[in-house]
Design a protein that fits this description.
heterodimer, A: alpha/beta, Rossmann fold, 6-stranded mixed beta sheet, 18 helices, B: mainly alpha, MetI-like fold, 2 domains
Chain lengths: ~525, ~325
């Protein structure tokens, strides 16, 4: 008999059906991967098992954990199941811990509310659990606060809280999505080990097919609140029955069809030369010497017209600082950035022509827009950088034209940003970048937050625009498979320096720097699609 | 932590210095000679000069500023022009009323606001939430002097539970004193409690929506345990800011209420001193109030650091 059986699970919130007839089962010591795009109901399935659905939701069907029918338990009895028999880990490690309590207290809390152990015994279990999640207490004493740890370390603390009492089942909802590839690989390895050690069942939820494929024994593919396909990982990946599974697979490995660019790729567009950015480090005492942290360390590279250059590296490597420095948003200590033969910053002022020729698209398609302005106004904003201001009519015409180019309607200009989906918002961001006919667009994790099918569409759009408008891209991403399929050349950054640079395929096939090698090794590889 | 405190203390001292200069300059700008004002139009020149010398007005402005500040540092606030008694004694007398009144009102406001805010947030959308929000809306809107008069009409005139005004002094006994401060304290507390309850509610609602509350629930804490163990302390940070602001406001801002209830407090004193052009009193009381505001802010800063470990290391 399975450890966890979910039968005919139905959930509706405020009368709206969210999950329909979900059937799942998890074996002890095995990993069930649930994969699907945003809104498919993956997280809601997890919350239904935990019975932690938002207020106003209605849940029907059976959830049986090792002979206990969870749906018939009272809230009080359910509290005893959560944390003791089922543990749960969430996506956002930065906010999943209470900032005001030490990590030791938070781990010990799990022990204290479920058992009558003494203080010293709870402490012993806490230290032991820290060791199990590979945070040795000698290095990470339980007296630490969450803000003193990195994202990956915090996620280990969240896992420690979930597994302190050795639950039978662990549910991990996108546990590595917010983390770097190398951290992701380590955490997946840790989860696997815990499953093997304790013969625990694991439900691993992810939007990333590659993560699921490399970790799960069985998988369930979800879409619109329904499990469309399930079975053992091998079988599902090799004999995909459902068209949606095939579509998802194709989209995740999507390689945008490169179109021949009309530009000669020999004339340099962006030249970054010996760029240095230092940050002042806060002094510990009043009389300490001022010290500096070098975020960008003598970086030089060139992007040619119409070229597509990738920039990869882990968080904290200086990618974002470099991007901001190129955009003229950071003071630089030495070196230079020039665009089209002209310094971007001259006499401490950013030249108007650089502002026009260089645009940026950020990761968060919602956060980068003022929600109180119409889309038309948002898209027209960069027109301020033109030397001659267009009149109202010309402005409107320009907005309609770029909206049409990114696949939206002219009437969308009247709407507000909350009326659009994530993919459409990113199209609007691209429209805003396009309106001044730039020669370079910096894509800062621009497709990272999008679902695979939407991501494929946006990548196609970008390639199309590059060819017709002769645009060069600086494509910054932590997702190596996208960088590999999208860019011509790639820069690998570590500790503020470019450690490797070369043609994308060459670098990925035969990386020469050890860091590049470790990055590529850590990245989960998408399963091969059987045609 | 020590660094954090040292920084806060330094900024406290600087604020006081700047405030003292500004207050001194403003008082200096006020036209009219204090001595001739005190003596009336018919006074002869010799008496006027003698009085100026007695009041310490005959020296240059920078010297007067230094005298004033150094006097305050040693507890000497000068002599009141009107009453010819040391200002420090007058302030000390008045503080015996104003300080307990502010504390009393703040205690009432907190005692009402915390439960109201917590109930409203945890039972969002329920009847209790809607009624609490309605009442606090009213509480913010009603002017406190009007509410004070209503209180007097009901509890002093109709029911005769309290006296309509005056203060018997603490010599009359602690409870007699407290009793006479009760109606003013309620009148002062109502708008404060309303604001505080609303802040508490919205802050708690924000915190209850945080990811770490979900984590706590997944650990097996009941909704109640998660509220008390994890949400409340986090929600307290904005609430502390408001409490700090309210205390300084209550200390200084009770002018109207003290007048309605004939309470010999600081507010009434400053009001009278202004009408009598007793500038030395005005100067000193204003400075004292600035000190109170800055000191309370400092205490709130310490409270932040106690509540939030992230602040202890902040530079």
């Amino acid at each position: 008999m399975s450890l966890l059986t979910v039968q005919d699970l139905r959930v509706s919130i405020g009368g709206k059906s969210i999950l329909t007839d979900i059937d799942l089962s998890v074996e002890a010591g095995k990993v069930l991967g649930i994969v699907g795009e945003s809104g498919s109901g993956k997280s809601m399935t997890a919350y239904s098992i935990m019975r932690l659905l938002p207020d106003g939701s209605e849940q029907n069907g059976k959830v049986i954990l090792d002979g206990t029918e969870l749906t018939s338990l009272s809230e009080e009895q359910m509290c005893q199941v959560r944390g003791r028999r089922i543990g749960m880990v969430f996506q956002e490690p930065m906010t999943a811990l209470n900032p005001l309590h030490t990590i030791g207290d938070q781990i010990a809390e799990t022990v204290k509310i479920h058992t009558n152990t003494s203080r010293s015994e709870a402490r012993r279990i806490t230290l032991d659990t820290l060791r199990r999640v590979e945070l040795p207490p000698e290095e990470f004493p339980p007296s630490r606060y969450p803000h003193e740890l990195s994202g990956g370390q915090r996620q280990r603390v969240v896992i420690a809280m979930a597994i302190a009492l050795r639950p039978q089942l662990l549910i991990a909802d996108e546990p590595t999505t917010a983390l770097d590839v190398t951290t992701q690989a380590q955490l997946l390895h840790l989860l696997k080990r815990l499953v093997d050690d304790d013969q625990m069942g694991l439900v691993l939820i992810s939007h990333d097919l590659a993560v699921i494929a490399s970790t799960a024994d069985d998988i369930a593919v979800m879409r619109n609140g329904v499990v469309v396909e399930s079975g053992s990982t091998d079988v599902v990946f090799n004999h995909m029955q459902h068209p949606y599974t095939r579509e998802l697979m194709k989209a995740s490995g999507h390689v945008p069809q490169k179109l021949a660019s009309t530009a000669e790729v020999t004339s340099p567009l962006l030249v970054v030369k010996d760029l240095v950015r230092d940050y002042k480090v806060a002094r510990k005492g009043v009389f300490d010497k001022v010290s500096f942290f070098r975020a960008v360390d003598e970086v030089s590279f060139t992007i040619y017209r119409g070229e597509n250059v990738g920039l990869v590296g882990e968080s904290g490597c200086g990618k974002s600082t470099l991007t901001r420095a190129i955009l003229g948003l950071e003071d630089i200590q030495s070196g230079s950035v020039s665009l089209d033969g002209e310094f971007v910053i001259a006499n401490e002022v950013m030249s108007l022509s650089s502002r026009r020729k260089m645009q940026v698209v950020f990761q968060d398609p919602y956060g980068s827009f003022n929600p109180r302005h119409t889309v038309g106004r948002l898209v027209a904003e960069p027109l301020h950088a033109l030397a001659i201001q267009p009149d109202r009519r010309a402005r409107e015409r320009a907005v309609h034209e770029v909206l049409a180019r990114v696949g939206l309607q002219a009437s969308d200009g009247e709407k507000y940003i909350h009326e659009f989906s994530g993919g459409q918002r990113q199209r609007i961001a691209i429209a805003r970048a396009l309106i001044n006919r730039p020669s370079l667009i910096i894509l800062d994790e621009a497709v990272s937050a999008l679902d695979v099918s939407i991501r494929a569409q946006i990548l196609d759009l970008l390639v199309e625009l590059a060819a017709s408008d002769d645009i060069a891209y600086l494509f910054i991403s932590h997702d190596l498979s996208v960088v590999r399929s999208f860019t011509d050349r790639v820069l690998v950054m570590k500790d503020g320096r470019i450690v490797e640079e070369g043609e994308t395929e060459t670098v990925f096939r035969s990386p020469s720097h050890p860091y590049t090698k470790s990055l590529i090794a850590a990245a989960p590889t998408p399963p091969k699609v059987a045609h | 932590m020590i660094r954090y405190l040292a920084r806060r203390l330094l900024s406290l001292a600087l604020t006081l210095l700047v405030a003292s200069v500004i207050i001194f300059l403003i008082i200096e700008v006020v036209p009219g000679d204090t001595a001739s004002l005190m003596l009336g139009v018919n006074a002869d020149e010799e008496t006027r000069l003698a009085l100026r010398e007695e009041l310490g007005l005959d020296v240059s402005k920078p010297v007067r500023y230094v005298n004033w500040v150094s006097g305050m540092l040693t507890g000497d606030f000068g002599i009141s022009y009107t009453y010819r008694t040391p200002v420090s004694e007058m302030i000390a007398d008045r503080m015996m009323v104003s300080f307990p009144l502010a504390l009393y009102a703040l205690a009432l406001s907190t005692l009402i606001a915390f439960p109201a805010g917590i109930i409203a947030a945890t039972k969002r959308g329920s009847f209790s939430d809607v009624s609490i929000m309605g009442v606090t809306q009213l509480g913010v809107a009603i002017p406190n002097f009007w509410f004070a008069m209503i209180l007097v009409t009901i509890f002093a005139i109709k029911l005769r539970w309290f006296s309509a005004g005056g203060f018997p002094g603490w010599e009359a006994g602690f409870f007699a004193g407290l009793k006479s401060l009760t109606l003013p304290a309620i009148a002062l507390a109502l708008p404060q409690a309303s604001i505080l309850a609303r802040v508490m509610r919205s802050s708690l609602l924000d915190t209850l929506g945080e990811d770490f509350i979900r984590t706590a629930r997944a650990k097996g804490l009941s909704a109640r345990q998660a509220l008390w163990g994890h949400a409340l302390r986090n929600a307290l940070i904005p609430v502390l800011t408001i409490i700090g602001l309210q205390f300084s406001f209550l200390l200084a801002g009770a002018i109207i209420i003290e007048n309605i209830f004939f309470l010999p407090g600081l507010g009434r004193m400053i009001f009278q001193a202004i009408t009598q052009r007793d500038l030395i009193v005005v100067e000193s009381v204003v400075m004292l109030l600035v000190f109170a505001v800055v000191a309370v802010t400092f205490l709130v800063d310490i409270a932040y650091a106690v509540v939030d470990p992230r602040l202890r290391r902040r530079v």
